[in-house]
Design goal:
Layout: E1 24-31, E2 42-49, E3 54-60, H1 68-79, E4 83-87, H2 103-113, H3 118-133, E5 138-148, H4 150-158, E6 164-170, E7 196-202, H5 210-222, E8 226-232, H6 249-263
């Protein structure tokens, strides 16, 4: 168990550069459902290295959909040697949903977020994992998960899946206060998390008060989870997204390097 919480942020120059610049292939495709009772075909964006075996990482969107920023994250992961897939989490209510960062778009994205349920979100993530792992070149016994904003909350849910062994959740709000679709808050599922979970949050984020950060850490500690909680004192909500006003380059760079260190655990041991 790790109790690293990074209370005093400073960029770590000892971490290696995250992107190897590999040639990649990317496409938008349709994933078949894994559970006929819950699933339906969903759109997804896929990016992978062209000529290198790659561990699978599921990328989970902000409330703004699988937009250019989420696609760019998938591309960066592929350039770094991962097979990245981003399922459309709003497929049931808004197929092909993709909006900008205006106030109107935020309200619309939150509307569709409120129509999701934990059960269907997990079914769609399982379908994305099954599809990606069956592709030629997919390797590794474990799967990574990377989520931002609403996707950070959903990543915490996804960390309960047996296939997911490394999760990076960025500023997932409401984990201690609600669960998509209702019922006990998502933090109540902490005991089901069996892999590594790293949570990234800005201390200037109005959507995640300090009390919620402390409650989240208390739950992870109580269940002896393998976690790290990275706090960035001057960073706001959305600090990783370079097309949002809240973008914080230093925090984003540090966090991305740490994500690469986490996902390196997905690679099979060298012979």
């Amino acid at each position: 168990m790790s109790l690293q919480s990074n209370p005093n942020f400073a960029p770590d120059s000892s971490l290696t550069a995250p992107d190897q610049g590999l040639a990649i292939h990317s496409e938008t495709l349709t994933i078949p459902p894994i559970d006929p009772a819950l699933g339906l075909p969903i759109r997804a964006y896929l990016a992978r290295p062209i000529a290198q075996p790659a561990p699978v990482v599921v990328v989970l969107q902000e409330v703004f959909g699988v937009n250019a920023h989420i696609r760019s994250v998938c591309d960066r992961l592929a350039q770094a040697g991962y097979l990245a897939i981003a399922p459309a989490l709003y497929q049931r209510t808004a197929p092909s949903f993709e909006v900008d960062y205006s106030a109107e778009s935020l309200a619309l994205g939150r509307h569709h977020k409120d129509l999701t349920t934990a059960e269907t979100l997990l079914a769609d993530i399982r379908a994305a994992i099954a599809y990606a792992r069956a592709l030629p070149g997919a390797i590794g016994s474990g799967v990574g998960c990377l989520g931002f904003c609403f996707g950070g909350h959903v990543a915490y849910l996804a960390a309960t899946l047996p296939e997911v062994t490394a999760t990076a959740a960025f500023y997932g709000a409401g984990i201690t206060t609600f669960c998509p679709g209702g019922g006990p808050p998502t933090v109540s599922r902490t005991s089901q998390i069996h892999g590594k979970l790293w949570f990234f949050v800005g201390l200037a984020d109005p959507l995640i008060p300090i009390a919620q950060i402390e409650a989240l850490e208390a739950a992870l500690t109580e269940w002896e989870s393998d976690y790290c909680l990275w706090r960035y004192p001057d960073a706001d909500h959305g600090f990783f997204c370079d097309v949002r006003a809240s973008y914080h380059p230093e925090a984003a760079t540090d966090a991305w390097q740490r994500v690469q260190a986490l996902f390196a655990t997905l690679r099979p041991p060298a012979p």
